[in-house]
Amino acid sequence: GAVVSQHPSWVICKSGTSVKIECRSLDFQATTMFWYRQFPKQSLMLMATSNEGSKATYEQGVEKDKFLINHASLTLSTLTVTSAHPEDSSFYICSASRGLSGANVLTFGAGSRLTVL
Amino acid sequence: SQQGEEDPQALSIQEGENATMNCSYKTSINNLQWYRQNSGRGLVHLILIRSNEREKHSGRLRVTLDTSKKSSSLLITASRAADTASYFCAIQGAQKLVFGQGTRLTINP
After folding, report:
1. Comparing C-alpha atoms, which of A84, A93, A87, A75 is closest to residue A21?
2. pLDDT digits over A33-55, tens only?
3. Which residues from chain B sit within 8 angstroms of residue A103, using beta carbons?
4. B85 CB near a chain A CB, below 8 Å?
5. What integer is the mean pLDDT of A3-18?
């Protein structure tokens, strides 16, 4: 079945540093990947849609200069949290669309827990 | 809001009992999906039901969709301890998939 690998699974960084999270589709090509943010015991908030070879589409309220997304190949999308602050601490999850007969069925990575000190 | 609303927010039952979770939404949809999330992990797709379908089964899962009431339900029969997780409905309109708040299901052995 479709597998999405996300790395790192957890990261702790100092305030002001940048953190990169990778999302790879291992056995299928993903022209579109999605990045979500999830707070404890809450739902997933879509941050941006990452399209291979083009600029990401950000949701309203998400700072594109803060959350840099790069989708350079059909199997890799990266999210970089720049100049991270404690309020950026969260669980970030990527997903890739398998495009099942026009339906947007998503395969998720295992998530990355970011803690900014 | 396009987001689905789930009910109940939390559900605790004994192993072997059936668990029912509901999802209501406000907009027109292309399809509705259910996902499961174990604590601190990513989501796993369980089942998809299209807007022209009324019921689907997958193993111990049964999903219904009532587009006139804009609601869906997920039934897990003969629950097991391993079913403990959060369950999210997700509605797809034109393109994006929007997730509900989720139901935290606890199965007590």
Report:
1. A93
2. 999 999 888 889 999 998 888 88
3. 30-31, 33, 48, 50, 92
4. no
5. 95
